[in-house]
Amino acid sequence: MLESGPLDPESESSLAAIFQVAGEPLKLLRFPIPTLDAHEALVRIECCTVCGSDLHTISGKRKEPTPSILGHEILGVVERIGSPPLCDVSGNSLEVGDRVTWSTCISCGECDRCLSGLPQKCFSIAKYGHDIAEGKYALSGGLAEFILLRKGSAIVKVDPALPAEVICPVNCATATVTAAYRVGGIIEGRRVLIFGAGMLGLTAAAFAKFNAAAHVTVCDTNAERLQLSERFGADSTIEWCDDAQEFSQRASACSVDGEFDLILELSGSSKAVEAACRLGAIGASVVLVGSVMKSPTVSLDPESIVRRWLCISGVHNYAPEDLLTAIQFLSDSHSRFPFSELVEKIFSLTDVNQAIEFAQNAKPVRIAIRPGFHGNTDNS
């Protein structure tokens, strides 16, 4: 059985931008709308923001299966539902017209990792925006008009009043940040240091400030990004330098003893990882998030780590609870911090290659693809 909503009359199909070869333009193709089985839903994509990992795939820095439909920061509206219906994370059945977002990861919910609290590392994991675009589940990425949601998806209903440009990155950048803070522990009253002032770092600064950190410091190589971080809650900033002694002196200006209680490394720089572990105070938590591609090995002082009771953790992807926290955070804070301004331009799906070129050259924090949008515009 199938409950249907109105579809475009063009032969029950969906336009999608296909990634095939690194360095080449994406190709616009049409895919048939699949028949829905139990616990599946067809979602019309309202907005998809382009993550840095998408750009790395397109440029060849990151390997993904091809052909594929990229894009995993997705917001959409339920168009059709299978029977029995797919449910959200609260156990409520989806209905046609629901505005939803969902975890990038699709998990089985039954393996040892899922049952132990790591569904984001499920043994049979699949990921939206990262899978091959073939067969029934070809429509699995955000650079399309429609996407097919599968059983095992962690779905959350979204308030229609929340601006798309604010909420769209929630199921990648924002949820990753909330996962990092969940692992890092208490924020209130602690001195927080954040390496990287991209989407992750700016979100991390706002989250720390919103949760009553004693002091928030952001480090980056880009002076404009550092200045922007002040609008997202940074009390002080550090411009990165490779010299360890010089960098420690700069850090001292942001903390009484040049040390920090909670450190998030979001840049992926091996030298920043070393600095993060060097600047942790006694009992500090250091959470490594940015090192998701091959990088040089790092040098650590084990004795220093032991004597300082330093806790070093790695975070990759996130659990459904982190997505819920992220959505609540953006709902509560988007009027306090200028998240909507981080999406610098909006493009239509048919202008996707123009959008990618702009993102690669101008290096904005985010751009957005809205399938029903006509032309492109600055969002400032």
UniProtKB/TrEMBL annotation:
Ranges of residues in domain Alcohol dehydrogenase-like C-terminal: 200-331
MF terms in GO: alcohol dehydrogenase (NAD+) activity; metal ion binding
GO cellular component: cytoplasm
Cofactor dependency: Zn(2+)
Entry-linked Pfam families: ADH_N, ADH_zinc_N
CDD domains recorded: MDR_TM0436_like
Enzyme class: oxidoreductase
InterPro entries, per the entry: ADH-like_C, ADH-like_N, ADH_phosphonate_catab-assoc, GroES-like_sf, NAD(P)-bd_dom_sf
Keyword set, alphabetical order: Metal-binding, NAD, Oxidoreductase, Zinc
Segments crossing the lipid bilayer: none
Residue ranges annotated for the Alcohol dehydrogenase-like N-terminal domain, each copy included: 38-157
UniProt keyword DNA repair present: no
EC number: 1.1.1.1
Record family assignment: Belongs to the zinc-containing alcohol dehydrogenase family.
Protein name: alcohol dehydrogenase
Species per Swiss-Prot/TrEMBL record: Thalassoglobus polymorphus
Lineage of producing organism: Bacteria, Pseudomonadati, Planctomycetota, Planctomycetia, Planctomycetales
